[in-house]
Amino acid sequence: MTVQSGRRERKKAATRQKIADTALRLFLERGYDAVGIRDVAAEADVAVTTVFSHFASKEALVFEQDEDFEQRLTQAVTGRAPHEPLIPALRREIQALVRHCTADSAAPIWHMIDASPALREYEESMRLRHAESLGTAIAADPDLSQTTTASRTIARFVIDAYALAREAADPEAAVDEIFQMIEAAWEATRPSAGGR
Questions:
Q1: Could you read off the pLDDT of 113-139 as tens digits, one per residue?
Q2: Closest by CA position to 12, among listed 62, 46, 57
């Protein structure tokens, strides 16, 4: 059964990727607003219900890496080495994500997102969700001993760092500058040695 289950999962993942790739190609060729879910389904040679079984909305087709992005951020917290400082681990992950999203090939996608109120709104709700997940992961880490408010605040800063750096003329320099401020804010919220 394991082989069949593995094959089924691979087939499901391949179908999902085919739908996402088809949608993105159509959106870039014709314009986001000019393409409907039926167009995507027909071009990908799947049923409309299949599209919706993989993606909750048309906007989700553009942000198909959403779950991966969120998992990578929480993994930067939960998967770091014992006693590894939090902020450098998050900085490395944000730096990698910014490099990926500022590659020349990503520029047309971001232009499309910036031109669409629906996509900008979806991205904003996605960022809030990512910040909540990241804040929860930080607050749950027993080695960090931060308040929930401090954890959620730092998480918001980290998510905003990604967005601000992505839009900067020099994204890597922006990440460096922003994370200096995040590090200072994090240090300011740490319990003092005398208070422990």
A1: 989 999 999 999 999 999 999 999 999
A2: 46
Q: What is the largest CA-CA distance in the chain?
A: 65
For Cα atoms 90, 91, 97, give the angle at the middle one, nearest 5 degrees. Answer: 90
Nearest to 149 by CA among 163, 162, 138: 138
Amino acid at 89: A
pTM of the model: 0.82
**Are 24 and 106 a contacting pair, CB within 8 Å?**
no
Cβ neighbors of 177 (< 8 A, separation 6 or more) are none
Helix ranges, the chain (H)? 2-30, 37-44, 48-54, 58-62, 66-78, 86-101, 107-115, 117-140, 148-167, 171-189
State how far the Cα of 151 lies from the Cα of 28, in Å rounded to an integer.
38
